Amino acid sequence: MFAIYSRQISLVFLFVLGAIGVHAQRNLEQFDLKPIHFGFTLSTNSGRLLIDMKPDFQNDTIRNVTSKNFPGIGLGAITNVRLGEYWDIRLMAPVISFVQRNLVYDFPSGSKEVKVESAYCDGSLLIKYKSDRRKNTRLYVIGGGRVSYDFASTVKKNRGLQNPVVSLVPLTYGWEAGFGLDMYFEYFKFSPEIKICNTFGNAMYRDGYIFTNVIENISPQLIQFSLHFE
User: Taking the model in full, what pTM does it have?
Assistant: First the structure.
């Protein structure tokens, strides 16, 4: 799943090395002393669906169900509140993310792919812990809770045996955790970040057809690579 990020991470890493070497003087000395500041984030993501099959599902009808992953994108706002020298509270809201994860059903006669697309409006309340600042860089870890509403949910879409639709419920809750690097430039702070986002409980809408009846629960998971500008 991390393959789609390898090139971006390598480019950011080279950019970081260049920034550390070029900027000998300390930039934005008073930036982290602000009680509150704002910014925006650009992100790419890879989503997948963690699937738990029912223990008694019909092997002679559906042999297995797997998740197929696709890259997605996101854009959002940042509000950061300073708690102390090393601690911040961070509100990421609203964040709009477009995610696609298909389900592949294996039948004795072949396979069938069901598209599951989402357009999430997310709100996350996070705690950020920062290391000591080294010239114009400092590492951090971040984690907290998340609420998501899927505007592309297909729970009301017509479905049937010949028209399979697998839907996720619109409103879900979860947690997220990650790490990143704050880089201080002359006029702004730039922060590449990697984060894992998991959903609590079962997010699948059960419609009575075999495509959902063979599944016990579905839990969406997201790996997100973000570029923050503050």
Answer: 0.86
